[in-house]
Amino acid sequence: MISQPNAPSRKLDRAVAPNTPARRRHCVSKWLAWSLCIGCLEASTAVGQAPANAFDQELQNAFQSKWAPLLEKHCSQCHSQELREAEVDVTQYRDLASVRAQPALWDQIRGLVKIGAMPPEDADPLTDQDKQELADWIDKALHQADCGVAQSPGHVTVRRLNSKEYDLTVRDLLQLDVWPSQEIGFPSDDVGNGFDNQGEVLSLPPLVMEKYLQAAEWISKKAIVIDEKSLRQQSADGDDIAVGESCMAEFDFAEGEYNIDLRLRYGDGQQHNVSVKLFIDDQLFARFEVEPKGKNYPFTIRFSEGTHRLRVLLDEDLQQETPTPPQKKLHVERFRMEGPANGSPRFPASHRRVIAKEWQEGDSFEAVIDENLRKFLPIAFRRPITEEQSLPFRSIALAARDQGLPFRESMQVALQAILVAPDFLFRIEQQEGALVREGVRELSDWELASRLSYFLWSSMPDDALREEAQQGTLSNPDRLVAQVHRMLDDPKADALVDGFFEQWLGLRNLQTLEVDNNTDPLWNDRLRAAMRKETRLFCRELLSREGKLSDFLLADFTFINPRMAELYGLQFEGRDPQEMYRGPKFRKSDRRLGSYAEEDRWIKTSLPPERRGLLTQAAILTLTSNPSRTSPVKRGKWVLENILGDPPPAAPPNVPTLEATQEDHKGLSLREQLEIHRSNPSCASCHRVMDPIGLGLENFNAIGRFRTEDAGKPIVASGELADGRTFSSAVQLSETLAQDQPKLVAHFCSKLLTYALGRGLVTADQCALGKIETYTQDRQSTVRSVIEAIVLSEPFRWTEVAPKTGELAESGPNP
Questions:
Q1: 3-state secondary structure 292-339
Q2: pTM of the prediction?
Q3: Cα(566)–Cα(563) distance, integer angstroms
Q4: Which residue among 138, 332, 414, 719 has the highest number of C-beta atoms inside a 10 angstrom radius?
């Protein structure tokens, strides 16, 4: 929370030199401090808890009459106020509310009791029936609610945009291909509930605020062109291309005649010319020959107003060798455009977005500012804006004018203020929707548009969503589902892969994972990036209309480039990937530090018979390995935690590690070492759940390459799950785990709802989750059906009404 700022210092105002960037930033930051304070006052209202119902009362009675006395009898020898082993005191919990206040701890207690790890063997034991009934009671207390009564839809904390949302919002707002969080160096966002878009952790420390101020100044200079002479001469770098390849550049053109200049040369040390074609918007404009010596190739072209694409194609080399050697490429060094010959150039899209109307001599400065703000602010703030709400930005632009800045620079200052305003930086819901019942209201169509766009695109609503919101039709369930499908078909939905799937599966950890270079000669940073892209493309495919939740375990397809094809032992469109390798060769080694032909091309392909779904993808297998060897424990734990949503409890303190067991039994296989490790009673209960799953994946080494031996011994990938089901390979393991589809569906729905809402789930959400799961299962359990069910759910479309805390200030400081 940001505290109330002190009264503005006029002495400080005078100390900052006028007509400078420092002056403008000071003006913006002073206004910002006031407005953020108001925003925080609006956001700080608390929401009361619903009263206990009959379901809760029954749980309360059971706890006080049976479970609290039983826990004190069997557990307080170690977990009391005096002893507090592992910092746990079970005697302090006397009612249902105290249990629900510590959900993570009680989930761990449930897991330990369920698998028989607690109480330990040397303590007063619980009967098997008591263990099961206590675990069931904890599960009900934490994860179930009385769905026969109205449940609260919850209240989402006002939160700022995280770095990715900020970048994508700036991109879509200003149509600028920039990444300010990287350019300015934003600090990493905190993570809560497994995701970096959670309201409770997206605070606004001073360092982040300073970065926002820097970014706003930097973006405003990129977005608004001050000197239009710079638009008359523009250039873009090209690339090196082989026969049949193209290189292109885009420019904004006003209607008129332009001089186009291409700087080209052919090959390195070549003696002959090659045939090149120039296309304008995919229409052939010219065919000409390019010499080996670098030279400018000028053209005069008349363009219509708009964005046009220039494309250079290396069409033919009559002396081409197969394959084309690197020294026989066309070097497209530069595209340059100059013009128009008469009239004004066309301003870029970012400029036109902010300045829809240019000020001319004779125009009212104030009227032009108002017209531009009237069009731009509703897009930037993602909702309709009143004239009163635009006044601070109007005042800032006029103050900049009064300091001697011309029109466009005044608009730059206003844009800076907009980019640091709470309505831009924060996702603020305005309490505008109709009441559903006392204390609960629908989201307005504008609020719903923002929730939907940040859920699926991590960015602001586009024109189609704003049009639906303007017409008041978005809250119609059919229209809402139609928008879901439209948005998932859009390339912007890649943001859902970045934001949700990568964090759910832990793919971001792959970037910093340490792998021993001696583990496998194929390992390097290029392979690391390819592994991550394979799983990203796989998840993106599941967002299609046919993608099913069962595909996470059973899919018989994946995506490969030549590097991944070699890792998996596959052909790449009928070619041997080893023959496609173009990098340096190492004697008696398969090291692949260089690149492959067509390395940037990815194709969908069938998996080899030993692989199925996520569990056998290289990214997941590498993430769950140690630097120099596989880890059945990590792999088993990852499956339980990320796929089935049933994580094993943390290891008890003072338990010997597997590494200690290995040190004493170096000659044994990993399976034999794990069996010895499980002989310790403190380890057995957890490892009998995790280890069989991990051992079922032992045919894959530490970076996911298939193998049949480890250290000269044959690998046995068969096993028996804790519930008695057996399997004999990784594929059978995946098929066996897929029989637990209700667990997979429930866990996936829970994680995706957490991400969609931007908050942790509470007991009241369990009824909505049940409806989401039913909706999904009735529609073949597709990934899209989960998304549909979430956006139609009450927690997504409704919210608790925050009580008012009094009238807020009506005006801010004079900028």
A1: CCCEEEEEEEEECCEEEEEEEEEEECCCCCCCCCHHHCEEEEEEEEEC
A2: 0.85
A3: 5
A4: 414
Q: Give the whole-angstrom CA distance, residue 296 versus residue 275.
A: 15
Beta strands in 179-328 (DSSP E): 233-237, 240-241, 246-253, 256-266, 274-280, 283-290, 295-303, 306-316
Residue 324 CA to residue 567 CA, distance in Å, equals: 26
**What residues make up the domain containing 97?**
55-143
Asked which of 427, 445, 479 is the last residue of a domain, the reply is: 427
Low-confidence residues of the chain: pLDDT under 50 = 1-19, 21, 23-51, 806-815
Q: Provide φ and ψ at 310, rounded to 5°.
A: -100, 130
User: Left, alpha or beta for 788 (phi > 0: left; psi -120 to 50: alpha)?
Assistant: alpha
Q: 408, 407, 471: which is closest to 445 by C-alpha?
A: 471
Could you tell me which of 468, 431, 433, 435 has the C-alpha nearest to residue 449?
Answer: 468
Same domain, 501 and 594: yes
Q: State whether 266 and 360 are in the same domain.
A: no
pLDDT digits (tens, 9 = 90+) for 261-309: 999 999 888 888 999 999 999 999 999 999 999 999 999 999 999 999 9
- At residue 111, the pLDDT reads 78
pLDDT in tens, 556-571: 999 999 999 999 999 9
End-to-end CA distance of the chain: 23
Residues 623, 542: Cα–Cα separation, whole Å = 21
Q: Are 90 and 72 in contact (CB under 8 A)?
A: yes
Q: Do 616 and 534 lie in a common domain?
A: yes
Question: In the 8-state DSSP scheme, what is residue 794?
Answer: H
Residue 447 lies in a domain: no
Looking at the structure, tell me whether residues 642 and 583 fall in a common domain. no
Rounded CA separation 207/188 (Å)? 11
Shared domain for 617 and 660, answered yes or no, is no
Instruction: Decide if 573 is inside a domain.
Output: yes
Amino acid at 612: R
> CA–CA separation, 469 vs 458, rounded Å?
18
What is the C-alpha to C-alpha distance for residues 649 and 638, in angstroms, rounded to an integer? 12
Give how far Cα 28 sits from Cα of 96, 130, 379, Å: 49, 64, 20
Task: Determine the pLDDT at residue 104.
Answer: 79
Residue 285 CB contacts under 8 Å (≥ 6 apart), including other chains: 278, 279, 299, 301
CA distance 110 to 223: 55
What distance in Å separates the CA atoms of residue 383 and residue 393, rounded to the nearest whole number?
16
Cα 281 to chain centroid distance, Å, stands at 34
The phi and psi torsions of 652 (rounded to 5 degrees) equal: -60, 155
Q: Is 427 helix (H, G, I), strand (E, B) or coil?
A: strand
Tell me if 167 sits within 8 A of 173, measured CB to CB.
no
In a domain, 13, yes or no: no
CB neighbours of residue 4 within 10 Å: 10
Contact 546, 782 (CB under 8 A): yes
Separation of alpha carbons 71 and 79, rounded Å: 9
Which CATH number covers residue 281?
A: 2.60.120.260
Q: In sequence order, what DSSP letters do the residues of 472-504 get, joined into one string?
A: T-TTSHHHHHHHHHHHHTSGGGHHHIIIIIHHH
Last residue of a domain, one of 311, 338, 365: 338
pLDDT at 812: 38
Both tokens of 241, joined, read 């291309």
Q: Are residues 620 and 636 in the same domain?
A: no
Residue 30, pLDDT score: 43
CB-CB contact of 287 with 322 (8 Å): no
Cα separation of 458 and 197, whole Å? 9
Give me 699's structure tokens: 């045919």
CA distance 180 to 350: 15
Residues 390 and 274 in one domain: no
Residue 446 lies in a domain: no
Total domains present in the chain = 5
